[in-house]
Amino acid sequence: MSSELPARPGAAPTSIASAAPSRHRVAVEERGSFCFASCSCGWFAPGRRSRDRARRDTDEHLADPEPAS
Question: What is the edge-to-edge ordering of all strands in the sheet holding 26-31?
Answer without folding.
Answer: 14-15, 26-31, 34-39
